[in-house]
Amino acid sequence: MTTGFPQNERYGLTSQLRRAALSVPTNIAEGSKRLTSREYARFLNIAEASLAETEYLIMVSRDLEYVTPTLAAKSFSEISELSRMLHALRKKGGSCWSASPLMSFPFLFQPSTVDCRPLWLYAEARDSSTLMR
Fold first, then answer.
1. What is the rounded distance in angstroms from the CA atom of residue 73 to the CA atom of residue 53?
2. Which of 12, 23, 82, 102 is most buried when burial is the number of CB atoms within 10 A of its CB?
3. The whole model's pTM is what?
4. What is the pLDDT of residues 88-127, one digit of tens each?
């Protein structure tokens, strides 16, 4: 998404959008290894905030015409679904849940066989709509 941004945004909007998007799975991964559900829920909340930041930065990118309205709408749809899943997981206290809805996102869920907390791995998305491109 950011490869078409102007060169003068390289250390501005481009960098900020990439960092915000990467912060979502990073906080989920870190939180999943915390010792208590309360700590895990706190990191899930931080991931939710990073997702909201990502959404806003895509709005700015769309308004500046760096991103097409179609690509922005697709991203907003994915962000909305991820937001609902993160919220639900946080409300459950980080307990195990179904992975199937996540498979369409660049974050893969695999249940841990030891403690039932998710192991989040960053992976390439199946199409070119990923925020990191």
1. 16
2. 82
3. 0.70
4. 888 886 554 333 334 344 443 343 333 333 433 333 333 3
**Could you read off the pLDDT of 101-110 as tens digits, one per residue?**
343 444 433 4
Tokens of 10: 């390289």
Residue keyed to tokens 């922005």: 72
Instruction: Give me the mean pLDDT over the 65-83 stretch.
Output: 95
Instruction: Give strand pairing partners of 118.
Output: 111
pLDDT given at position 126: 36
> What is the residue type of 38?
R
What's the CA gap between 94 and 104, in Å, rounded? Answer: 21
- Within 8 A by CB and 6+ apart from 8, the residues are none
What is the rounded CA–CA span in Å between residue 23 and residue 10?
Answer: 18
